[in-house]
Amino acid sequence: MNSRVINVLVTRDIPEIGVEMLRKEGFNVTVMGYDKPLTAEELKDAALKNNALLCLSADKINASFLKECKHLEVISQFAVGYDNVDVAEATKLGIPVGNTPEVLSDATADIAFGLMMAVSRKFFHLHKTIAKGEWSYFQPKKNLGIELKNKTLGIFGLGRIGIEMAKRCKGAYNMSVIYHNRNRNENAEKELNAKWVSFDELLQQSDVLSVHSVLSEETKGIFNTNTFGKMKSNAIFINTSRGGVHNEPDLIEALNSKIIWGAGLDVTNPEPMRADNPLLSMENVAVLPHIGSGTVEARNAMSQLAAENIIEFYRNGTLPHCLNREVLKK
């Protein structure tokens, strides 16, 4: 390890395992103990005093910040997603950026699967009726859900999390799996008998459409009035990726107009969602506060991987999980 004192800024109170790993390696670690994200000015002022940054997805690591803090030697993101980080600008400045993939796949897939079940049987809505004292007598035609067995699951973005979601749906409900990616996932096709389809075919054929893509210029707002209009009227839309992938007013209108049947969201746009958002009062909707990685096991593993990125960078010049490896070759 480098003999000089290396200062590491951790922008939020993360699970202790990663912080202790860094301190054990001799890093001088500052953990910001705030419950909410740092402001842009607070983040910049704190980063200026440090060599390395361990940040969260709520931190805006944009071009403006990076130009002010171009002295940073490495950035490690406590998340698998990185749409908050201007990776292109970091690359220009020669700053390697790491993330924490794989370790939250099971936890997030569980949320997607749970939301699908909750929407299909109106779990959240019916729980509220009990709390409001509205559970009375049996009504054969009221509060009916839809069954999932032998239905078609459509995956938009069949990566690690999408594969785990597909395994659950196939195993529990014998669902057929179709997907749309820019590139074919031949391993998943063999393992799950998944079928690649065009984006329009994904919309038209899916009984449940589960989103697991990154947020990019290409995917931003891709689920909107036009795309919802191509889906089945009994379709369930699930999004556990990023809220910006769907247009929320368009989703509300699609549900109100019964263009689609229901929606399950672990991500919203904006976040946090307002308490008076119409989605929260709809029968066929289930919303969670972005808890996809919210298990003890997943968060500990994320903390560990985020720390490993920094440790390995200073130990041997590499990041185990690097988003811009071309920087490391220089």
Architecture overview:
The protein is globular. Helix 1 (16-24) packs parallel to helix 12 (296-316) and helix 5 (105-120) packs across helix 7. 35% of the residues lie in helices and 14% in strands. The chain has helices spanning 16-24, 40-47, 63-68, 87-92, 105-120, 123-131, 160-173, 186-192, 199-205, 225-228, 248-256, 296-316, and strands at residues 7-10, 28-31, 52-55, 74-77, 97-98, 152-156, 176-180, 195-196, 208-211, 236-239, 262-265, 285-287. The protein has 330 residues and is of the alpha/beta class. It folds into 2 domains: 7-102 and 295-327, 3-Layer(aba) Sandwich (Rossmann fold), CATH 3.40.50; 105-287, Rossmann fold (3-Layer(aba) Sandwich).
